[in-house]
Amino acid sequence: MVKIAPSILSADFSRLGDQVSQAIAAGAEYIHVDVMDGHFVPNLTVGPLVVEAVKPLTAAAGVTLDVHLMIEKPERLIPDFARAGADSITVHVETCPHLNRTMQQIKALGVQAGVTLNPATPLVTLEEILDEVDLVLIMSVNPGFGGQEYIPASSRRIARLRELLAERSLQHVEVEVDGGVGVHNAAQIVAAGATILVAGTAIFNSQASIAANLTALRAAAAG
Ligand code: DX5
Ligand code: ZN
User: Fold this and answer.
1) Which residues line ligand 1 (CB under 6 A)?
2) pLDDT digit string (tens) for 103-112?
């Protein structure tokens, strides 16, 4: 069964704890935190302080606190995010010349290690690291902002990644998809091979409650 990872990027930060609690009560398996540095991506968001603030809520519910680092030189801040309570830390291949070392660094801190890549970065850049990762995140928008359109070619990338993992008997690796996910495309993204759907605006918007949005997304994902 596919897992849902609400991205707090689209939450109301004046009521962040309440919004995260609502998402957890509605059955979210992950809470996704988008960390942006204003360098690797044009936007600037949150740091370990916010991860630490959300941690008691996720920990009490057994929900995975999933941290997506869109920052240059992530190795400098990985220990801080681990200390703050991240259960999973994902870095971009574009920011890690020593990706193997970075994966070891994350795992040595007792955190699940994830790797991701921009929509135009070839999947083959992951080939040598797949044995070392717990999670691969396929970016289905150019990172930096919520509320963008899903890039259709992403579905083919998800399917190719699934094939690569199967060839290597690495089916346990989670395949997470991030950007433009909603009720209109969740079924085809899952059919392509996703096991975790990140959703920001599809969950946190003014059209319906967080619970209603999450239920609708889960139903859509089930096909
Ligand atoms: C984009 C972020 C995404 C984003 C998804 O850089 O990594 O997690 O919040 O937002 P939506 O679901 O609105 O596309
Ligand atoms: Zn993200």
Assistant:
1) 7, 9-10, 32, 34, 68, 141, 143-144, 146-148, 178-181, 198-202
2) 999 999 999 9
